[in-house]
Design a protein that fits this description.
This protein is an alpha/beta fold and 187 residues long. The chain has one domain (7-186): DHBP synthase. The chain contains 6 helices and 11 strands. The protein has helices at residues 7-15, 37-47, 62-68, 73-82, 114-123, 143-150; strands at 20-22, 29-31, 57-58, 69-70, 87-93, 105-109, 127-128, 130-131, 159-160, 173-176, 183-186. The longest helix has 11 residues, at 37-47. The radius of gyration is 15 Å and the shape is globular. The termini are far apart.
Length: 187
Protein backbone atom coordinates (compact mmCIF):
# COMPACT_ATOMS: atom_id res chain seq x y z
CA UNK A 1 0.00 0.00 0.00
CA UNK A 2 1.24 3.49 -0.86
CA UNK A 3 -0.11 6.31 1.29
CA UNK A 4 -3.60 4.80 1.51
CA UNK A 5 -3.87 3.44 -2.04
CA UNK A 6 -4.55 -0.27 -2.28
CA UNK A 7 -3.28 -2.57 -5.05
CA UNK A 8 -6.92 -3.29 -6.04
CA UNK A 9 -7.45 0.41 -6.78
CA UNK A 10 -4.27 0.57 -8.86
CA UNK A 11 -5.28 -2.51 -10.87
CA UNK A 12 -8.83 -1.19 -11.37
CA UNK A 13 -7.46 2.14 -12.63
CA UNK A 14 -5.14 0.42 -15.12
CA UNK A 15 -7.89 -1.98 -16.30
CA UNK A 16 -10.19 1.01 -16.94
CA UNK A 17 -7.54 2.55 -19.22
CA UNK A 18 -6.08 4.89 -16.63
CA UNK A 19 -2.54 6.23 -16.46
CA UNK A 20 -0.73 6.26 -13.12
CA UNK A 21 2.43 7.82 -11.77
CA UNK A 22 4.29 5.06 -9.98
CA UNK A 23 7.70 4.59 -8.35
CA UNK A 24 10.04 2.21 -10.17
CA UNK A 25 13.51 0.84 -9.47
CA UNK A 26 14.96 3.85 -11.33
CA UNK A 27 12.74 6.97 -11.46
CA UNK A 28 9.00 7.62 -11.19
CA UNK A 29 7.17 6.25 -14.22
CA UNK A 30 3.96 6.73 -16.18
CA UNK A 31 2.28 3.33 -16.15
CA UNK A 32 -0.61 2.17 -18.36
CA UNK A 33 -1.80 -1.01 -20.02
CA UNK A 34 0.38 -1.29 -23.15
CA UNK A 35 -2.34 -3.40 -24.85
CA UNK A 36 -4.97 -0.65 -24.43
CA UNK A 37 -4.75 1.80 -27.34
CA UNK A 38 -6.76 4.56 -25.60
CA UNK A 39 -4.66 4.29 -22.42
CA UNK A 40 -1.42 4.58 -24.41
CA UNK A 41 -2.80 7.52 -26.41
CA UNK A 42 -3.72 9.21 -23.12
CA UNK A 43 -0.20 8.60 -21.79
CA UNK A 44 1.28 10.26 -24.91
CA UNK A 45 -0.99 13.29 -24.32
CA UNK A 46 -0.07 13.52 -20.62
CA UNK A 47 3.64 13.25 -21.40
CA UNK A 48 3.35 15.48 -24.51
CA UNK A 49 5.45 12.85 -26.26
CA UNK A 50 5.66 12.84 -30.06
CA UNK A 51 3.74 9.85 -31.48
CA UNK A 52 6.80 8.78 -33.48
CA UNK A 53 8.88 8.33 -30.30
CA UNK A 54 8.18 4.80 -28.99
CA UNK A 55 7.88 3.94 -25.31
CA UNK A 56 9.49 1.04 -23.45
CA UNK A 57 7.39 -1.78 -22.04
CA UNK A 58 7.57 -3.61 -18.69
CA UNK A 59 7.08 -7.38 -18.80
CA UNK A 60 6.95 -9.87 -15.93
CA UNK A 61 9.40 -12.50 -17.20
CA UNK A 62 11.30 -13.86 -20.19
CA UNK A 63 8.29 -15.92 -21.31
CA UNK A 64 6.18 -12.75 -21.58
CA UNK A 65 9.07 -10.94 -23.30
CA UNK A 66 9.07 -13.64 -26.00
CA UNK A 67 5.41 -12.85 -26.78
CA UNK A 68 6.46 -9.35 -27.83
CA UNK A 69 10.02 -9.78 -29.10
CA UNK A 70 12.02 -12.20 -31.20
CA UNK A 71 14.77 -13.40 -28.87
CA UNK A 72 17.66 -15.60 -30.01
CA UNK A 73 19.97 -17.64 -27.72
CA UNK A 74 22.67 -14.93 -27.56
CA UNK A 75 20.11 -12.26 -26.63
CA UNK A 76 18.43 -14.57 -24.12
CA UNK A 77 21.74 -15.12 -22.32
CA UNK A 78 22.22 -11.34 -21.94
CA UNK A 79 18.63 -10.84 -20.77
CA UNK A 80 19.00 -13.56 -18.13
CA UNK A 81 22.19 -11.87 -16.84
CA UNK A 82 20.67 -8.37 -16.58
CA UNK A 83 16.99 -8.92 -15.71
CA UNK A 84 15.32 -8.01 -13.48
CA UNK A 85 17.09 -4.70 -13.31
CA UNK A 86 17.78 -1.25 -14.68
CA UNK A 87 18.28 -2.41 -18.28
CA UNK A 88 15.92 -1.84 -21.20
CA UNK A 89 16.68 -3.90 -24.29
CA UNK A 90 15.69 -3.12 -27.87
CA UNK A 91 14.77 -6.25 -29.80
CA UNK A 92 12.97 -7.17 -33.01
CA UNK A 93 9.24 -7.05 -32.44
CA UNK A 94 6.69 -9.87 -32.67
CA UNK A 95 3.29 -9.03 -34.16
CA UNK A 96 1.58 -9.10 -30.75
CA UNK A 97 -0.97 -6.38 -29.90
CA UNK A 98 0.84 -3.62 -28.04
CA UNK A 99 0.70 0.16 -28.58
CA UNK A 100 3.15 3.06 -28.44
CA UNK A 101 6.01 1.00 -29.82
CA UNK A 102 7.90 0.93 -33.12
CA UNK A 103 6.51 -1.23 -35.94
CA UNK A 104 9.69 -3.32 -36.21
CA UNK A 105 11.35 -3.11 -32.79
CA UNK A 106 10.33 -3.05 -29.15
CA UNK A 107 12.13 -1.94 -25.97
CA UNK A 108 11.49 -4.29 -23.03
CA UNK A 109 12.43 -4.33 -19.37
CA UNK A 110 11.78 -6.45 -16.31
CA UNK A 111 12.01 -3.99 -13.41
CA UNK A 112 13.55 -4.98 -10.11
CA UNK A 113 10.61 -3.50 -8.22
CA UNK A 114 8.14 -5.55 -6.20
CA UNK A 115 5.06 -3.35 -6.82
CA UNK A 116 5.60 -3.13 -10.59
CA UNK A 117 6.26 -6.84 -10.95
CA UNK A 118 3.18 -7.55 -8.85
CA UNK A 119 1.08 -5.31 -11.14
CA UNK A 120 2.38 -6.94 -14.33
CA UNK A 121 1.82 -10.41 -12.86
CA UNK A 122 -1.70 -9.71 -11.56
CA UNK A 123 -2.79 -7.95 -14.74
CA UNK A 124 -0.93 -10.51 -16.89
CA UNK A 125 -0.28 -7.88 -19.54
CA UNK A 126 2.61 -5.58 -20.40
CA UNK A 127 2.71 -2.09 -18.93
CA UNK A 128 4.24 1.08 -20.30
CA UNK A 129 7.59 1.83 -18.72
CA UNK A 130 8.33 5.46 -19.50
CA UNK A 131 9.53 8.13 -17.07
CA UNK A 132 6.94 10.40 -15.43
CA UNK A 133 7.86 13.71 -16.96
CA UNK A 134 6.84 16.01 -19.78
CA UNK A 135 8.88 15.10 -22.90
CA UNK A 136 12.07 17.12 -22.98
CA UNK A 137 12.04 17.64 -19.19
CA UNK A 138 14.34 15.60 -16.93
CA UNK A 139 13.17 12.33 -15.38
CA UNK A 140 13.07 12.55 -11.60
CA UNK A 141 13.13 10.61 -8.37
CA UNK A 142 11.61 13.58 -6.50
CA UNK A 143 7.81 13.48 -6.32
CA UNK A 144 7.38 17.26 -5.92
CA UNK A 145 9.39 17.91 -9.13
CA UNK A 146 7.17 15.46 -11.00
CA UNK A 147 3.91 16.90 -9.67
CA UNK A 148 5.08 20.40 -10.59
CA UNK A 149 5.68 19.31 -14.22
CA UNK A 150 2.08 18.12 -14.57
CA UNK A 151 0.51 20.97 -12.58
CA UNK A 152 -2.32 22.77 -14.42
CA UNK A 153 -1.84 20.68 -17.59
CA UNK A 154 -4.85 19.77 -19.72
CA UNK A 155 -4.13 16.03 -19.51
CA UNK A 156 -3.52 14.52 -16.08
CA UNK A 157 -2.62 11.09 -14.69
CA UNK A 158 -5.57 9.26 -13.09
CA UNK A 159 -3.69 8.13 -9.99
CA UNK A 160 -0.45 9.16 -8.29
CA UNK A 161 1.40 6.69 -6.08
CA UNK A 162 3.43 8.97 -3.84
CA UNK A 163 6.24 7.03 -2.20
CA UNK A 164 8.10 10.22 -1.40
CA UNK A 165 11.49 10.86 -2.91
CA UNK A 166 13.19 7.77 -4.32
CA UNK A 167 16.90 7.05 -4.05
CA UNK A 168 18.85 9.17 -6.51
CA UNK A 169 18.92 7.28 -9.82
CA UNK A 170 18.92 7.70 -13.58
CA UNK A 171 16.45 6.15 -16.03
CA UNK A 172 17.31 2.63 -17.19
CA UNK A 173 20.25 1.94 -19.48
CA UNK A 174 18.98 1.22 -23.00
CA UNK A 175 20.86 -1.37 -25.03
CA UNK A 176 20.07 -2.36 -28.61
CA UNK A 177 20.52 -6.14 -28.92
CA UNK A 178 19.71 -6.21 -32.65
CA UNK A 179 22.82 -6.94 -34.69
CA UNK A 180 26.07 -8.70 -33.92
CA UNK A 181 27.16 -6.63 -30.91
CA UNK A 182 25.05 -4.93 -28.23
CA UNK A 183 24.97 -1.15 -28.67
CA UNK A 184 24.35 1.22 -25.73
CA UNK A 185 21.76 3.83 -26.73
CA UNK A 186 21.46 5.53 -23.30
CA UNK A 187 23.78 5.24 -20.28
Amino acid sequence: MLKGIKIREIIRTIKKGGVIICPTDTVYGLIADATNKKAVEKLFKIKKRPKNKPIPIFVKNLKMAKKFAVINKRQEKILKEKWPGKFTFVLNRQKAKVFGVDKKTIALRIPNHRLLLNLVKQLNRPLTGTSANISGQPASTKIEEILKQFENKKYQPDLILDKGDLKKSKPSIIINLIGEKPKILRK
